[in-house]
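pinging the channel bc i need a second pair of eyes. not urgent but kinda urgent?? the chain im working w is below, pasted from the shared doc
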Amino acid sequence: MLFIVLIAAAGLGLGLAAALITGSTPRDIVARLRRLQIAYWPVLALGVVLSVAVGLDTNMLAARFALGISLALLLAGCLLNRHLVGMRVVAVGLAANLFVLLLNGYLPVSEGAVIAAGIVDADGLDRVLLGAARRWNGDTTIAAFLGGTIPLAPLRDVITLGDLVTAVGLANVCFRLMWPADVGTRVNEAIPEQRSGVARAPVHEMHQNTLENPALVGVSDTPGSGRLQPSWATRVEPASWPAPAPWHAEEQDTPAEPSAACEESARANEQQLFTA
C-alpha cells in the first residue's frame, strides 16, 4: 500500500510541474478538477476504506473476504471510470490480485523475496508476521508468480505484480489529471511563429503579382484576408438585370460626302452636255 501511495504522489507531482511549465495556472488546474466527473465515487471510496482496514489489522476477522470485497469494489469503480486515462491499467492490476486471491484463497508470498528485501535473513523467516490474507508459497499454490514476488529493499517490503501495475496506472491517472494531453497541443498551435523565431510578413505582401513573382494559377490572394484563397472561393457579384449585351452595336454605314474634285468633274461634264 505504501508503494502505491508513493508512486501515485510522484505522478501527481510530475503532472503539476508539467502543467505549470506549459503555462497553466493553479486556478486553471483547480477549475479543471472541479469539472472532473467521477462516476459512482462511493464505490471507490468504500473499496479504499476496506483495503486500508485489511492492511492495518493483521488479525481482522474474515480478512480474506474483506480483501476480496475491497478488490472487487475497486475493480468495478475503475471500470465505471474507464473514461479517465490510466484507469484501465489500474483495473488490470487489481484484476491480477483478485484473480490470485480467488484461486488460492490468500495472497501467496515468496520467502526469497522477503529475504531479498532485507526484512529478515534466512533463519528468521519463522518470526515474520504476514499481513491479513497472506500466506507463504506452498506446493499447492496456483499462479505463485502473481503473488508477493517483487522485493523492495529501500522500503523493506514485498509487492505483487498486480501492485506494480496498479501503481503505474494510478500514477498515470494522477499525471493526466494535473496536465491533460491537449495542453501541449494548444500551446504549440498558439505560437508557431514564436517557436520558429522567424517573423512572417502579411500574405498580400509576400505574394504580389510581379514579373519576379507571377500569380499562382487557380489561387487568388485577397489583401487583408491573411491567407491564400483558391479562385473558386472568391465571391462573384451577380450582374444587374437586364444584363447588358455582350457585344457593341454595329455602327450603320453612312454615305460619304463627295469630295471637291468630284464636284468639279461633274460640273465640267454638265457644261459639255449643254454646249453640245
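so The CA atoms of residues 87 and 256 lie 100 Å apart. and Residues 183-196, 201-207 have pLDDT under 50 and may be disordered. — does that match what u expected or am i reading it wrong
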